[in-house]
Amino acid sequence: MQKVEVCLSPELIHLFDLKGKIVVVTDILRATSCMTTGLASGVAQIKPVATLEECRVLKGQGYFTAAERNGAKVEGFDIGNSPFSYMEEKFRGKNIATTTTNGTLAITKSTHADEIIIGSFLNLSTVAKYLINTGKDVVIHCAGWKGNYSLEDTLFAGALFEKLHNDFECGDDATNSALSIYSAAKNNLLETILGSSHAKRLKKHNIRKDIELCCTIDKYDVLPYLKDGVLIEK
Amino acid sequence: MQKVEVCLSPELIHLFDLKGKIVVVTDILRATSCMTTGLASGVAQIKPVATLEECRVLKGQGYFTAAERNGAKVEGFDIGNSPFSYMEEKFRGKNIATTTTNGTLAITKSTHADEIIIGSFLNLSTVAKYLINTGKDVVIHCAGWKGNYSLEDTLFAGALFEKLHNDFECGDDATNSALSIYSAAKNNLLETILGSSHAKRLKKHNIRKDIELCCTIDKYDVLPYLKDGVLIEK
User: Fold this and answer.
1) Nearest residue on chain A to B180, judged by CA atoms?
2) CB A197 to CB B173 under 8 A?
3) CA of B155: which chain A residue's CA is closest?
4) Which of A43, A233, B6, B175 is least surrounded by Cβ atoms within 10 Å, i.e. has the fewest?
5) What pLDDT, on a 0 to 100 scale, did the predictor assign at position A151?
6) Average pLDDT for residues A34-40, to the nearest whole number?
7) pTM for this structure?
C-alpha cells in the first residue's frame, strides 16, 4: 500500500527520506495557489527561484518576474504574490520567474525527491487523482512561515489525505493530525484560514479577495509539475 | 496579556525567542512523565543529561542512573524510561541522572529561557496554575521523536492551552492546532495515544501499563523545575 507522510515545515524536511517518492509542495497563502492559477490561466512555464537576485537576472532573459517578501510585492518586479496577477492576459504563453518568502524554498529543499508537484485547494482533486495513480509514496511538504508551522498548509495536507486515505497508509502522526485539524475546520475553511497567523499578517496588504480565491476547492484541474527546474502542466 | 506559543519539535526551537519566557518541556512517552512521577514519589533531584557518557560518569558520583535509547533501557544503567521504575522505594531522597532519546535534548535546547519546567498529563493542572500566576509568556516545547512531530506531545500542548486560554493570548497557529487536535481526542485520550506512531514503536517493549499511566490527568501536584541543571520540586 502507498504511504503518505506530512512534513510540517521546510526545517524538518531533512528528517524525511524522499528517494523514490513524490513530494507535494504546498504554500496556500499564496505561492502554490499562484502557480496553480498561473498554469491554469495559460502561463507556459513558471520558474521558482530562491533569491531576488536570481529572479532579477531572469528578467533580462525573457521572463516576466514575480517577487514577494514578507507578504508584499518587491519593487522592480512585474508582479507580487497575488493569484489574480497570474490571470493577466499578457502572461498567456509566456514564462514567469518567481521568488517568495516560503514556497519557493520548500520546492528547492525537495529536489532529491523522485517527482515534485504543486498542491493547493484550487487543484486538490487533480493532485489526489494523480497520486492515487502513480503507485509511489508521498510526502506533503508544507511551506510554513519562515521555517515554522502554518495552519493553512496543514489544512491542505489534511484535505489531501482525506481524499487519499482509502488508497494510502498513514505514514506518521503529522498526517493524522492534519486530517483531524481539517475535519474540524472544513465546514468553515475560509473563516478558519482568515483566523490564521499568516492571514492576520497579510491583513495590512488588503488581500481578502486573494484569500477567498486560495480557499476555493477544485477551481482548476491543472497539475503543476517540476521538470528541469521549471513548473509546467503535467 | 500573557502569550502562549507551541514549538512542535526541538528542530524548530531556534525559531522562538525564549528570552524572559517560561518553557514547558513535554515528552509524554515517557521522559517528562517519568520526571513528574519521580519527584512526586520522593526522588530528591533528577539531572537530565544529553549523552550516555555523561550519565555513566554521574554513576560514579552518587547518582542512580536512568538511560533509554529507541524506547529500550540501556545496558549498564539502573533503570530505563518507565515511570513505574521512578516509584521504587530505594530512590526516595536520592538523586537520579537520566538520558533519553528526545526529552533530555528538548531540555538542553531550552536553556536560554528564563525558566524551564516539566509538563505531563500527570501534573497538567499544577503546571497551568503556576503559569497563570507568573505573568510571563510561555513556550510549550514538544520533544517529539528524533526531531519530528509527535502526536502525544502536541495533545499535551493542546490540553495545557485549554486550561490557559482564558488568561493567555494564543501566540501562533501551532497553539490553536494543538487545541483542535486535543478537543477532538480528549474523550478518547488513551486510545488516541495508543494509535500514535510512538506507541506503535514501543509496542514490542510491552509497555501498555506505562502508556496508561502517562495518560492519567492530574495524578500528581508536583512541579519539576530546572535549577542549576537539576530538576527539583518547585
Assistant:
1) A181
2) yes
3) A177
4) A233
5) 97
6) 98
7) 0.96
